Structures are given as C-alpha cells and as structure tokens.
Amino acid sequence: MIAIADVVNGYKLAEARWARFGPYYAMFPVDFAFEIVSKYSQDGDFIIDPFAGRCSSIYAGGVLGRHSLGIEINPVGWLYGAAKLGPADQQEVEGRLEEIYKKRNYYGKAVNKMPIFYRMCYCDEVLKFLISARKNLDWKNDGTDATLMSILLVYLHGKLGEGVSNQMRMSKSMGQNYSMKWWTKKGLTTPPEINPLTFFKKKIFWRYEKGKPKVFDSQVIFGDSTTELEKIISRSQETGIKFSLLFTSPPYYSVTDYHADQWLRLWMLGGAEVPKLLKDRHKGRFDSKDEYYKLLDAVFANCAVIMEEESTIYVRTDRREYTYQSTLEILTKHFPDHELSIIDKPYKKRTQTEVHGNKSSETGEIDIVLTRTKS
C-alpha cells in the first residue's frame, strides 16, 4: 500500500511526479484529494467526479485502489487527467516528439502569417514546432499523441525559463492585447530563443525518471456530464455497479469562463487564434442563474441514481450566497436521507476565485458533505 505522504510531498515516486501534472484553474489541492478519498471510501470502492477538472480526485482514487470515473468538458483538463491516469511509454512519447520536430520546417510560411501576439510570445523555432504539433498530433484518439500533447500544454506558457513562451502566467492565459502591452512596457518584446526538442526532452525525462504511476482502474470521459451521466446510468443498470463516493467541485456561478481562461492552450488543440467567449452550452462563464441551477440540478439528479444507498457526497463549492445556497438546496433535494454537515474553509490568503473574478467579501470555500451509513 502506497503511503499518501510520499505522493503529496516531494517527487521521489512516480505517483508524486504525476500527481500535480497540469496547471489548471480552480483545481483540488493534491493532498486534499487524497485525504477525502482515503477518509470516505475503501479499497475497491467506486468513486465518481462529474466535474473532474484536471482529475486530482480521480487520480487519488486510482492510486489508492478505487475504481474511479471522472467526466470533464474542457479538453485541457481532460488531457491532463487522461495523461496522468495512463501515460504512454516514454520511448514512444520521445519518438513522437522527434517526428513532430522534424516536420516543423513545413510551417515556416504559416509562422509569418500568425498574429503579432504569437511572434512576441514565441521564437520562430518554437512557433514552427507548435504549429507542427497542432496539425499532426491526434490527441483525441491516440494515447501517445495525447500524452505528448498534454506535456506540451503544461509548458506552453509560463515564467521565463519554465515554459517555451515569453514571460506569462502558467495557470491562466492572459489576453493578447494585455500581454503585448505588458511585454512592451517591460522591454520583453523579443521572445526567448529555445530549442523545443531539447527543452521538451528534458521535461519528458524528468517526468518519467521514476517511471509511470500505478493507477488502478481509473478513467476520465471527455464530454458533458448532463449527457454522459445518462450513459453511465444505463451501464449501471446493466452491471449493477454503483458508486460509494461522489467527490467533486462544480463550476462557480459568475466567477470565470473556464474555456476563455485556457484560450492559448485551446488554440494549441485546434481552437481559434484570437480568444473569444464561448456560447456553447456548459462551456463558458455561468452568468445565467437559471442555466447554472439547471446544470447542477441535472447532474446531481443523475448522480443520485447511480449512488449506493450508503454513500458519501462530498462537494466543495463557493461560499458566496447564490452558488452555495443553490448547491446546498439541490444536494439536499436529491439526497434527502443523507446526514448533512458543513465544513467551512475560509482563506486568509487571496484565493483563485478572488484573483479571477470573485470580488466578494465572502472569501474561501465551503464543503458540503452528505453521508448515509448503515443504521
């Protein structure tokens, strides 16, 4: 049995090296994910997260020997999760990296047509390589390509020397105009000269140095929970399998646009060159209280069908009144026989939700826990 402390502290084990894989907005802290899975489930249990993000909950479940299933609508989070739950062999990933690098010079003309932001963000050698990867990696269908693409996404932007870009944040993509003005003001109009093959070989070597993580029967589905859960219900009815732990953190009402925050990584996955707010259902910022309520209601209603009678529902949410009260009302409606407890999690430091849009005086988050055990 692996020691949780060895996973959540340091990088000596493969499980630790992959545990924090993928910078992502509003992610579960790794130690928190392992704590909850360990406390509220047993070896061999089935756990589910319908808003999986970068899959910290599902990864914790898999490492701890639980059958773990996640659903994530954002391709960036899904890729991070899919890669760390089942990374391809290192040799295959490095071979694919070399193939993509060799094709880079086919895209010299494409570089010259890119908006000025990209020319200020990346040197030509990096930009040719990125376009080659963008055009040739079949990340949706091929495990090796998915692993390589996920590694490229991790280092697509960040602090100088830590990524292949000019100076940027790592977790959230900043706007093009904002970035260009900031670079100009700071005298950073020329991007760093980086050899992408050398850079990513070093990153791949470090990630795989301790091997691949041992993850038990875990999967993340790329899709919308409102539709994917209906398929899971059908399979549950056929197999008789139900879940003992629902562990998740839904999107917060009117705080951030999860896709806009990742626009540069979404460009890498084939998206638009210029960031834009998405109008697709359940992909943009939740500004409609009605739509937000309907989403949570539909998801937790479907989850209730596939949960064991004796189960735990653990939901971390925003402490602002509408998000919290809506989530609480929906959960108690769909799990009326569970015992409710509230764990308040105020933070003294600025939280991610505050940095990215929550200006409320109500800081921190709240955990809603519903449990039902044998009497």
Automatic annotation (TrEMBL):
Annotated keywords: DNA-binding, Methyltransferase, Restriction system, S-adenosyl-L-methionine, Transferase
Segments forming domain DNA methylase N-4/N-6: 22-75
BP terms from Gene Ontology: DNA restriction-modification system; methylation
Enzyme class: transferase
E.C. numbers: 2.1.1.113
InterPro entries, per the entry: DNA_methylase_N4/N6, MeTrfase_CN4_CS, SAM-dependent_MTases_sf
GO MF annotation, one: site-specific DNA-methyltransferase (cytosine-N4-specific) activity
Reaction(s) catalysed by this chain's protein: a 2'-deoxycytidine in DNA + S-adenosyl-L-methionine = an N(4)-methyl-2'-deoxycytidine in DNA + S-adenosyl-L-homocysteine + H(+)
Taxonomy, superkingdom: Bacteria
Signal peptide: none
The family this protein is said to belong to: Belongs to the N(4)/N(6)-methyltransferase family. N(4) subfamily.
Protein name: site-specific DNA-methyltransferase (cytosine-N(4)-specific)
Originating organism: Mucilaginibacter phyllosphaerae
Lineage of producing organism: Bacteria, Pseudomonadati, Bacteroidota, Sphingobacteriia, Sphingobacteriales
